[in-house]
Amino acid sequence: QVQVRESGGGSVQAGGSLRLSCSASGTTFKVNAMRWHRQAPGKQRELVASVTGDDRTTYIDSVKGRFTISRDAAKNTVYLQMNRLKSDDTAVYYCNVDVTMDLWRTDFWGRGTQVTVSP
Question: Rounded CA gap, 40 and 24, in Å?
Answer without folding.
Answer: 24
